[in-house]
Design brief:
Elements: H1 2-21, H2 35-50, H3 55-70, H4 75-86, H5 91-104, E1 114-118, E2 130-135, H6 137-144, H7 152-164, E3 167-170, E4 182-192, E5 195-199
Antiparallel strand pairs: 1-2, 2-4, 3-4, 4-5
Length: 200
């Protein structure tokens, strides 16, 4: 019965938060679309916080939930997650990056994201792909609901999602922890039996 009560509280909190993320469904900036999931994530944090759970307990539960959400369910999903990294240095990827950069840098809502794609090989450790989040919609959402201290939990998941894409994340800071931007740089990864090798 406890789990039913918790789910009910999360749904109640989410119904209020979702009003602040409704714009994301039709935003011209595709990064904004992740805000609906982040709204549900925030609703879960609010529910656990109201139940007097510690920050560390909330962090652990949230990371477990997100990891289960992003983990590939089969070999096909795992392949698709790694495909973009394999196509990074192709003419097609350069064309896609150019189009995506125009959309990522669009501020469709004051509550959304603003980002830029980096393709300079020197700045991206030879990979030819990286990006900076200049305005973080997640931080804005969490701040609006007075839960900014929990926003950095989502930043921790970036390393895992990068690994699923066949990349090692290299980052110097995040907006959630006080930096002016979230910088995402990567090294491509090859997997050998029993270990992973990173190369430039």
């Amino acid at each position: 019965m406890e789990s039913i009560s918790i789910i009910s509280e999360i749904e109640k909190n989410y119904s209020l938060i979702s009003k602040d993320t409704a714009f994301a469904k039709t935003s011209k900036n595709p990064i904004d679309r992740r805000l609906d999931f982040c709204g549900y994530f925030l609703a879960m944090i609010q529910t656990l916080d109201a139940r007097k759970e510690s920050f560390e307990t909330i962090r652990r539960i949230c990371i477990e939930v997100v990891l289960e959400y992003v983990r590939p369910k089969n070999k096909w999903e795992a392949f698709l997650k790694r495909l973009p990294a394999k196509l990074t240095n192709t003419w097609l990827s350069r064309l896609v990056f150019k189009k995506l950069n125009a959309r990522f840098s669009t501020k469709d809502s004051p509550d959304g994201f603003v980002a830029r794609i980096i393709t300079d090989k020197v700045e991206t450790y030879g990979l030819g792909y990286g990006f900076d989040i200049l305005e973080c919609g997640i931080c804005k959402l969490f701040n609006k609901h007075n839960y900014s201290k929990y926003a950095s939990i989502l930043c921790e998941v970036d390393e895992v999602t990068s690994g699923l894409a066949g990349l090692k994340l290299i980052r110097t800071g995040t907006i959630a922890l006080g930096a002016k931007k979230c910088d995402f740089r990567f090294q491509a990864m090859i997997t050998l039996p029993g270990k992973e090798v990173f190369f430039l």
